[in-house]
Amino acid sequence: MEALAWSQTQIFGCAVLLGIALGAFYDAFRLLRLFTGAERKQLFIEDTLYLSLCGIATFLFTFAANGGTVRFYILAGEAAGWCLYRLTLGLLTARLMHWVVLAV
Predict the structure, then answer these.
(1) What whole-number distance in Å separates Cα of residue 13 and Cα of residue 39?
(2) Closest to 51 in 3D by CA, of 14, 86, 25, 77
(3) How far apart are CA 65 and CA 75, in angstroms?
(4) Is the pLDDT of residue 1 over 80?
(5) 35, 37, 87, 93: most buried by Cβ count inside 10 Å?
């Protein structure tokens, strides 16, 4: 039982890291939007692409880490990592991107 709990803790930690990576990936889409002045149609396509890629990443992670069994702690870890990124580094990168776009 102890080994199983440690394994779940490791999977949760990796899920948090995946959530952070997905948050950084979202900033790449945000940068694209700032440079292109996205219209509603383009926003829809970008959001659909982003969510599809996030779904694929979550599926592959869940399959590799837990044999394809979806557990709440995996999804919670991803959400926590995404929120952690958005409330810390995400705020800094948003300001930096805004300054870069104004400078260009």
Answers:
(1) 37
(2) 25
(3) 12
(4) no
(5) 93
Given CA atoms 11, 14, 18, 19 in this order, what sign does their dihedral have? Answer: positive
The model's pLDDT over 45-102, given as tens digits with 9 standing for 90+, comes to 889 999 999 999 999 999 999 888 889 999 999 999 999 999 999 889 888 888 887 7
Token pair for residue 101?
């776009």
Report the distance separating Cα 50 and Cα 71, nearest Å: 22
Q: Which of 59, 73, 54 is nearest to 15 (CA)?
A: 73
How far is the C-alpha of 42 from the C-alpha of 82, rounded, in Å?
23
Structure tokens at 22: 């997905």
The Cα–Cα gap between 77 and 70 comes to: 12
